[in-house]
Design brief:
The protein has 489 residues and is of the alpha+beta class. It has eleven helices and 16 strands. α2 packs parallel to α8 and α4 runs parallel beside α6. It is elongated, with a radius of gyration of 31 Å. It starts with a helix and ends in a 6-residue tail after the last helix.
Length: 489
């Protein structure tokens, strides 16, 4: 009984040790000819493998992780010690590496000769995946690739490590790069356009309602129209990019132009939301009273200058960065290379999209909290009917903006989480649907609310309209002394 227990414990410890290896089997090399020193390090070819970077195996794995039993041997995580290069051929192939010197284009677009006998790189043998395809830069410009100093290669607008590429040779010993073929789940790409196409009519209706009803064409209404127009362009562009695979071919002008238009429309949407948040905060904090039509027109001009010009300048700056290539490859947006939009690189997207939008969202949160605090503070300062009415309209506008901001905030949070986890989980299908149907929700928030609905009825169906006065055109101005709490003597 005791022997049985000891055997079970031994097996458990052995498996646990195997699981604790700090790399995958395909990233190991046979180092059996080495030896273990007094510090439990394993020495092979004058290289020291610390404990946890080597392990005894009684099997080998192929590229589809099928195990074959072999004699026990020691394998080490060579890529933990130095950069690695992976070759596609089988380890028993006689001409696996026909030459000890490889001529490749490095990250500086310069020809570089790598001598694999110098022991600068670890050599991994075998395909990293079941299906691969080779790049043919002589035939297609978008198949050009560069070897990076860390052992990865840059191709198709993305960095591929040894888990995703391997090198082979053609008949004249020219180095050929091969990438893993990844099966893409198209479900999300099918859901997105449908949801956005449903949203677009609701956004257009929202825009037309505020454009056709004079009482709604105040500063608030004009900002909301610009916001819905930007979101409409965003949804329309994204739908076209995801649905049109015939004309939007990578590295063509239509593809690149649509990518920049999508980027611009994203910025426009968030900058207009920021302008609206600032406006509601400006009213509550500065106490602007008796806004004239001219003053509102001037303010709208300033908001247009900010919310239209700034995104255009940012987009132009990104365009220049992309074409001048003044930064490292990881930080270049590469529109139209891997996809029409910014390449799916965590660093590039983080800088040009997620960091920028996150800063705008943080600013909006600050505006909203301060506005809510001031509105709550001024709730019961006076019984003057005119002042109370203006505060009521201010609260109404605040709640509309708050709902819009919550919709945009939830969308962006879900999009950010999906981006960080590469959108692989089916959980994100529900959030994708939510994001795509934002147009419907904006219609409900901005058009179906009581005051706007009553204005619509008064204009096109007076019989059904409520006779109660709808204070949409009331002055939003509130003087400083009206919104500040009275001082106690």
């Amino acid at each position: 009984m005791e022997w049985t227990f000891l055997i079970v414990v031994f097996i458990f410890i052995n498996r646990s040790a195997d699981a604790s290896l700090s790399c995958k089997f395909i990233d190991t090399v046979n180092i059996t000819d080495g030896f273990k020193d007094s510090n439990q390090n394993f020495i092979y070819n004058d290289e020291v493998y610390p404990l946890g970077t080597y392990q005894e195996f009684d099997y080998i794995e192929n590229h589809v992780q099928v195990k074959t039993s072999v004699n026990p041997h020691i394998r080490g995580c060579v890529c933990k010690l130095k950069p690695c290069i992976r070759f596609c051929c089988h380890k028993n192939s006689k001409d696996c590496i026909p030459s000890n010197k490889l001529t490749v284009d490095n990250e500086n677009e310069e020809s570089e000769v790598i001598n694999i006998n110098e022991n600068k790189y670890g050599i991994l043998i075998g395909r990293p995946c079941e299906k691969i395809y080779h790049l043919t830069p002589d035939d297609y410009d978008d198949d050009r690739w560069n070897f990076l100093s860390n052992g990865s290669i840059f191709a198709n607008g993305a960095v591929h490590d040894t888990d995703d590429y391997c090198l082979s040779f053609n008949n004249d010993t020219q180095v050929v790069a091969n990438l893993c073929f990844h099966q893409v789940d198209d479900t999300r790409f099918e859901v997105y356009p449908i949801g956005m196409l449903i949203s677009i009519p609701f956004l257009i209706i929202t825009f037309l309602v505020y454009a056709l009803i004079p009482e709604l064409r105040n500063l608030h209404g004009k900002c909301l129209m610009c916001y819905t127009l930007s979101l409409t362009v965003l949804y329309a562009t994204l739908s076209i990019i995801q649905m049109d695979k015939t004309h939007l071919i990578l590295q063509t002008l239509p593809c690149i132009a649509s990518g920049y238009l999508l980027y611009l429309s994203i910025l426009l949407t968030f900058f207009w939301m920021n302008a609206m948040c600032y406006d509601i905060w400006k009213i509550s904090s500065h106490g602007i009273s008796n806004r004239s039509r001219k003053e509102e027109q001037n303010l709208f001009s300033y908001y247009c200058l900010y919310a239209f010009t700034t995104p255009v300048l940012i987009t132009f700056a990104v365009f220049m960065i992309d074409h001048l290539e003044i930064f490292a490859t990881d930080y270049l947006p590469y529109f139209g290379i891997q996809r029409c939009y910014i390449t799916a690189s965590n660093k590039a997207e983080a800088i040009y999209v997620y960091t920028l939008i996150s800063l705008i969202i943080v600013a909006n949160i600050i505006f909203f909290f301060d506005t809510a605090r001031r509105i709550w503070k001024a709730q019961s300062l006076t019984n003057d009917e005119n002042i109370q009415q203006r505060r009521g309209v201010l609260r109404n506008r605040f709640y509309i903006y708050l709902r819009l901001f919550i919709l945009m905030g939830i969308m962006w949070c879900m999009e950010s989480i999906s981006w960080m986890y590469e959108g692989s989980s089916e959980v994100f299908y529900a959030t994708d649907i939510f994001n795509c149907l934002q147009g419907v929700m904006i219609f409900i928030v901005c058009v179906c609310e009581k005051r706007t609905r009553n204005l619509i009825l008064k204009r096109w169906c007076p019989i059904l309209a409520d006779d109660e006065e709808v204070p949409h055109t009331v002055d939003f101005g509130i003087r400083n002394e009206e919104i500040k709490a009275p001082r106690t003597e």
